[in-house]
Amino acid sequence: MLPYLSVVLSVRNERKMLPGLIDQLLAQNYPPELYEILVVDGGSTDGTAELIRRRYSDRRVRVRVLDNPKRCVSAGRNTGIRAASGDAMVFLSGHCTIPSKNLLADTAEILETTGAGCLCRPQPLLAPADTRMGEAIAHARSTRIGRGPVAEEGSGWVDPPCSGGTFRRNVFEQVGLFDESFEACAGLDFNERVRQAGIRAYSDPRLAVYEQPPQTLRSLLLEMFCNGRGASHFMRKHPEGSSLAEIAPLGILLAFLLALFAWSQLPIPMAAFITLPLALFPVAVLYTSMQIGASHGLRSAWRAPAAIATIYLGQGAGLLFEYAFPAGPGPRRTAPVVTVAQPAKLPGKADRAA
Q1: Dist. CA 246–CA 228, nearest whole Å
Q2: Cβ contacts of residue 183 below 8 Å, gap of 6+?
Q3: Would you say residue 278 lies in a domain?
Q4: Cβ distance 333 to 181 under 8 Å?
Q5: What is the structure's pLDDT at 276?
Q6: Is residue 196, in this structure, part of any structural domain at all?
Q7: How far apart, in whole angstroms, are the C-alpha atoms of residue 227 and residue 218?
Q8: How many domains does the chain have?
Q9: 2 with 34: CB under 8 angstroms?
Q10: For the chain, what is the HEC assignment?
Q11: Strand pairing report for 96-97 and 210-211
């Protein structure tokens, strides 16, 4: 028997890309009575919620719009989970595309054949970019130095589930909901809790979705800053699951600040000696940019150094800011979080007809 799937989209100001994504979901080769689409809107100011309500009110697949007054993705996902009727929840962003019409069918098949509680997927930045800088950012993020998203190669069991995007209903009953104290990296935190609970995770390239990269250096900087803060919060909460690689951007940023101090305050020979190791970074950036140029052309190659520098500046500044000024009491840190000891109360199959 095929499972009922709930697709949860936590969005804000996604009027441009979201209709295309929903159209791709409605075109899936999966029985329309066996899945629903929950659009959780975080106070969009561009008419996203109104557009979705108007355009998709009479489809065979149920499309619902829910409000997320807290605006952050973690709260939006929790709102979707509480309203969902599915046997499993598939989480997507509002700025992605789905390359396969069999995504939901493959999801159901893999859940049934593996018995996994969590399904992981590749999420490369392959959705169409609207700007040339967006193209360059996507190419830079796909490299090792660009700290791109992890893409699982091939099918198999994975541990930890670093790219989990689909979860059975009972996973939330076992480990709780998303931690709303995270504005970024909430998924990383949730997947770590899934790993700690011993829930098995399976990865398959058939489940890939294509994310859209940031379109400008400013939007990339803001995204990386938030990711840096989220990574810092994650490392405080899960020190056993952290690694030195996660603080590499902070090390690069501090080395750069040290170089500025050395060249302004110390004799030239001493400053050169102190900052010599830092020279390895621009060499690596230049080499990576040349590789990008060979694969994608000069228009991406000459923009790549600025994109890579922005990645490290944003993440490093976010890490440093969160270390220096951890968020104190307030709505972001005191949002109720369901824990293992206080399992989530989720609607059952009988609620679908409601």
Answers
A1: 9
A2: 72, 73, 74, 226, 229, 230, 332
A3: no
A4: yes
A5: 82
A6: yes
A7: 14
A8: 1
A9: yes
A10: CCCCEEEEEEECCCCCCHHHHHHHHHCCCCCHHHEEEEEEECCCCCCHHHHHHHHCCCCCCEEEEEECCCCCHHHHHHHHHHHCCCCEEEEECCCEECCCCCHHHHHHHHHHHHCCCEEECCCCCCCCCCCHHHHHHHHHHCCCCCCCCCCCCCCEEECCCCCEEEEEHHHHHHHCCCCCCCCCCHHHHHHHHHHHCCCCEEECHHHCCEECCCCCHHHHHHHHHHHHHHHHHHHHHCHHHCCHHHHHHHHHHHHHHHHHHHHHHCCHHHHHHHHHHHHHHHHHHHHHHHHHHHHHCHHHHCCHHHHHHHHHHHHHHHHHHHHHCCCCCCHHHHCCCCCCCCCCCCCCHHHHHC
A11: antiparallel
**Is residue 169 assigned to a domain?**
yes
Closest CA to 178 of 280, 39, 72: 72
Q: Could you report the per-residue pLDDT of 179-229, keeping only the tens digit for each?
A: 999 988 899 999 999 999 999 999 999 999 999 999 999 999 999 999 999
162 CB contacts (<8 Å, ≥6 apart)? 120, 150, 188, 191
| Selection from 106, 76, 131 nearest residue 303 by Cα | 131
Residue 283: inside a domain: no
Among 100-104, 115-119, 342-346, the least confident range? 342-346
* CATH number assigned to the domain comprising residue 14: 3.90.550.10
Domain holding 26, by residue range, is: 5-129+148-212+334-353
Tell me the β-bridge partners of 210: 97
If you search the block for the tokens 């949002």, which residue do you land on?
Answer: 335
Burial of 205: CB neighbours in 10 Å, binned 0-12, 13-18, 19+: middle
Measured between its terminal Cα atoms, the distance across the chain in Å is 22
pTM: 0.86
Q: Which two tokens stand for residue 146?
A: 């660009």
Asked if 343 and 176 touch (Cβ cutoff 8 Å), the reply is yes
User: How many residues can be counted in the chain?
Assistant: 354
